[in-house]
Amino acid sequence: MGELSIPALIPGTERPSLLPLSRYRPPQIADSIRQFLEASTHAGDLVLLAGDVEAQAVAETVKLGRKAVVLCRHPVQILRIQLALDPAPVSEVQAALTRLGDTLKSGQPLFKHIQDLNSTQCPKCGSRATARWFAWDRETGHPYAKRVLCPRCHEEQEGPVTPEDIQNAGDFPVKTGLTYHIALGKLARATDPAIDRIIKLVQLYTPRNLRCLMDILNRMPQVQVTPVARRALIALILEALDRGSVLSPYEEPERRPRSLRPPSRFLERNIWLLLEDAATRYAREKEIRALTTLPTTRAATSGSELLHAAEAGYCIFQRSISAIDPKSFPTCQALVFTLGAPDAAYAALSTLWALWIWGQSVPKNLRYFLTRRRLDWDWYQRGVAFALQRLRQILTPGARLLLTAPQSNTNAARATMHGLLYAGLKPQTWISCPPIGHRLSCQPSTVSSPKAVPSIQEPPTLAQIQRHAVAILKQRAEPISWRDLETLLIFDMMTAVLPELSPGNFPRLLSLENGKLAWLTEEGPLRYRPLADRLEAKVRHLLSHQARWQTDDLVAEIYSA
Q: Does residue 271 sit in the same domain as residue 339?
């Protein structure tokens, strides 16, 4: 085997996140993990993928000829990965949705039953029509407006609701009824100490939509389709569960929920139309999804099968990091840990949906998120620290670790550095690449214990911070946003306890562009040309010496300089 070098880190290429639940997800980052693994591992090596893993990371690992061990316990995350690596053909997904709609409810097809529940009068011509949505007022607990698909007008119409619409809508929030108790019973017993909090989650659906969703979920076992088509059908249902709640503001229906409090005016969307819209989007994403597809690779059913396989592949372990036995992977040559962001609303909602879909197979410790009111960065960085401390025990001597965050956030930078220092690690190389986050790599064997690194409890002084900030700005030779400067200081000073930057505390720094940018009060003669100019010159130099480049090779050469 050839000698491995310290990998040059690159930002990678931004790709859109895919269905399901893409509005909660950061963009996928292509190529940065591939570049790291290509330089730091050999073909056939075992690579551990943990944290907020996306299918892109798994696909790049396997396509390089490595074996990917994926650690994730949430069934929604697992479904997203499986759906991207092994997607169902569009025709199978459409057929699966048709079969679901053809199952019977009260003697008629399910889709017809759902549409009848959304039947109303066209506000323009008075004909019977199907509502696309009803707009509700939270305080009155009743709908006040609607948008309908009118077969007579041949277009969508909006207008006020009728007394019939108000009567058919039911009361909000829902508190009684068979459907309500079925939905609640899938989550907890009446004696559960957190039952009041769990009831609030069930009440995120209007009576009509809760009824439709429970009817759909109860009929899923009757739908005879292939496993890959069933995964895709569940993805469509997840979209309906998400967009069919009362968390869609009337003014901004596509904005993702950031809390579990219903807006003052919200939309109740037609569940069946949401399923059809999701199927249409799945078809539109076909080309992007093909970039992560592994058409000839079957997922291994166990770690042993993956270890003894002659070819590259992957295995998904649905268990927490604390439950992993380091002896299970005796030859792990690299770890890629992807940072996410604490999101209490998404954690509660995704766990709610998982329990409704998969029931008792959902890991019990995920139920914690149903009742957790707040997830902050302090909580998250403690989790990152524990995970890295645990996972470094699995790596073989000489193995390398990559931490990657797909979105720029100073809190994510703090969590990264806190986790590294707590686990007794420090970065060998790093890059900050706003707006698509940061990448850090290290070799665990270079630091033997947490005692060998600076204390994670002692914040640097203002004088130290200013000295490093001035050095960074002089080296860049151009202004930078205060937030990006803060991230650079966290990595440059290897500290997780950097105080929030306040321009008034640093006499050698000033603010430009109404406080958005940081720069030097007295520039003096700068040693370097502006960073953008140096980058342009580097590219011109490389192209003048070699006319043809693979894009990946050119980017790697630029960032290795």
A: no
